[in-house]
Amino acid sequence: MDQILSLPLTLSYQAAIRRKIMLFFSAVTLLGILTISAIVVGSYGISLQDVFWTLLGQGEGAMRTVIWNIRLPRIFSAIIAGCGLALSGTVFQCLLKNPLASASTLGISHGAAFGAAFAIVVLGAGGFQGSALRTGAAGQLYLQSIYSVMIFAFAGAMMATLTILALARIKRMSVESVILAGVALSSLFTSGTILIQYFATDVEIATVVFWTFGDVARSNWREIGLMGTITGLALVYFILRQWDLNALTAGEDVARGLGVEIEKIRVWGMLCATLVAALITCFQGVIAFIGLLAPHIGRRLVGPDHRLLTPLSCLIGALLLLAADTSGRILVGSGAMPVGVITSFMGAPLFLYLLLRGQWK
Amino acid sequence: MILSVSDVHFSYNSRPVLDDVTFHLEKGHILCILGVNGAGKSTLLKCLNRILKIQRGVVFLNGEDIRCLRGDEIARGIGYVPQRYGDEPLTVYDAVLLGRKPHIRWAAGRRDMEIVEDILRLMQLEAFALRPVNQLSGGEAQKVMIARALAQEPEILLLDEPLSNLDLKNQLEVMRLLGQAVRQRGLSAILSVHDLNLALRFADLFLLLKNGRVHTFAGREAISPEVIEDVYGVPVILQEVQGYPVMVALDQFS
Question: How far is CA B223 from CA B42, B117, B189, B195, B200, in A?
Fold first, then answer.
């Protein structure tokens, strides 16, 4: 410590870093509080004490079912999906050096929606009657083969990414051109989805539309485990690559001069971030704005240093999605409001606010 | 010999930019690359640290072919200051600490911090340490870029037009600080510049490029008005003002 005291600039720098780390711990605390609130809130009344005993395995049967089979999967889905979408958004924005880069602008979400529409309409994975996929108004709609929809949604998302990567690599496109290619692909996939819907029955159209509403209430523990594992591994990869991401923030020539193999980090980084976004989209549907918004909020709080920005953006993404889902449950009641609708309503004004505050960084 | 460049050839989409470029650099020297716009100055600098991959020829850094070195090994030997700079949002401290990247495995340690602190003082950037680079003036941002390259602890600094967009005071200050850093740390520096007078004042060696080929590679004594006229196509006269060599262009259109 005495040795560090001889470095006054470093001391001020470390004090600034410590203040930023405190924000990280505040976000963790806030997420903990929000998680407990999300367990308690809902049409089935649960007290804090009940939550405590049930989590320790002491609760009564119905309480256990509500907490372990309905609320906790939904909460963990929201946390992991929020974290993963924010992670992919942070990485896309850094690798493509564009504040508008996200799964939506790169055509990944639209690719997934096209894949799902294809599975539902062409392969007949959607239908009427039978076991309900969702409760409430959509109770009669169901997916005959949920896994084929997921696989095709994932394939659609990956198709978008691989097309962009191939264009970037073979034609050596600039990062600006990559974003434009993403916009073009989004338009192409949207047209494809409309074309499929044109030939679909009313029920199939409704099923496609309901699939595209992002909803964290869909996943079971196995799917949550898969999403969590992939998101966790991707997070570790990007934390290990934090210096490379920082170098890219400083510019391509600077990064190359510092020994960063830009093509390699760009290809692997894009693949990794897409895998996370595609997996979340195929399990949860299209959830807009989290991937775009979380990195922007993170940058406002801790700046562009990826050593802090990446983990904090993930926490902000988790907080935003869990808050959106919980507020949806409070406003409309359990299961009736897909979180994708709320994030769009919440995200667009928040994004405009950030834009108007001149924090477009 | 710290850097040896032999028969280097580079083309953009089959359009040759550099052809048969050969020169070498000893420790402690400042080499200026001169030539008209498009002569290949920036391309040559980028070929020296493998930002661009040469299509023919060889570059040796301390006797090792740079094609056989990893990116971080080259970055430990050669620091690079690009032509475009100043739009990065990192703080000055973070930007300079980033220069330690080729040496850092996981987290920055005490030695990295000491080096950053030392270089921030050398470049007189203490007052801006916690400010974002994109909020600094052109001269301050340029000093940050040089500071980052110095933080790499390289043996050679490559600077691509470090004086463009700087006013006279900042041009002199940047060159003074650069000269000081080169002398104090026993480095070598290669820079491309347009200002012949600053080049003549601060550099020991000159590499004049014409149409991608080496026209002249020599010390100050070889930079005559005839050589400059042949390379730039403009007649000049060379005078001495208070001990400094000054090149004055004559208006060829009058």
Answer: 21, 39, 19, 14, 9
For B20, phi then psi, to 5°, come to 55, 45
Which of A50-64, A203-217, B46-60 is most confident?
B46-60
Pick from B172, B113, B177, B116: nearest CA to B143? B177
Looking at residue A137, its pLDDT comes to 42
Strands A126-128 and A141-143: antiparallel
Q: How far is residue B147's CA from residue B92's CA, in Å, rounded to a whole number?
A: 9
Identity of the residue in B98, B116, B120 whose CB atom sits nearest the CB atom of A258: B98
Residue A286 is given by DSSP the state B
> Is-contact B9 B17, C-beta < 8 A?
no
What is the rounded distance in angstroms from the CA atom of residue A290 to the CA atom of residue A83? Answer: 9
Residue to test with chain A: of B48, B49, B70, B90, most A Cβ within 10 A: B90
Please state the ipTM of this predicted complex. Answer: 0.89
Q: Where are the alpha helices (DSSP H) in chain A?
A: 2-5, 8-40, 48-55, 61-64, 72-95, 108-117, 146-170, 175-198, 202-212, 221-240, 242-249, 252-257, 262-284, 290-302, 306-332, 339-356
CA B90 from chain centre, in angstroms, equals 22
Find the residue in A nearest to B151 (Cα). Answer: A258
Q: Which two tokens stand for residue A44?
A: 């089935």
| DSSP at A43 | S
**Cβ–Cβ below 8 Å for A13 and B93:** yes
Q: B-chain residues within 8 Å CB-CB of A260?
A: 71, 101
- Whether A13 sits inside 8 A of B74 (CB atoms) is no
- Is B79 touching A (CB cutoff 8 A)? yes
Domain ranges in chain B are: 3-85+154-249
CA atoms of B232 and B215, how far apart (whole Å) = 11
Residues 6+ apart with CB under 8 A from B10: B16, B17, B18, B40, B43, B44, B47, B52, B54, B55
Per-residue pLDDT of A299-335, as tens digits, reads 999 999 999 999 999 999 999 999 999 988 888 765 5
Contact status of B113 with chain A (Cβ, < 8 Å): yes
Q: Are strands B3-12 and B15-25 parallel, antiparallel or unpaired?
A: antiparallel
DSSP A119: I
CB pair distance less than 8 Å for B90 and A261: no
- Domain spanning B3-85+154-249 has what CATH number? 3.40.50.300
Return the pLDDT at A138.
Answer: 43
Which of B12, B43, B45, B51 has the most A C-beta neighbours within 10 Å, making it the best mutation to test the interface with A?
A: B51
Chain A residues whose beta carbon lies within 8 Å of the beta carbon of residue B72: 259
What structural domains and CATH numbers belong to chain A? 50-356 (1.10.3470.10)
What percent of chain A lies above the pLDDT cut of 70? 89
3-state SS, residue B19: strand
Cα-based distances in Å from A298 to A50, A98, A213, B87: 35, 15, 26, 19
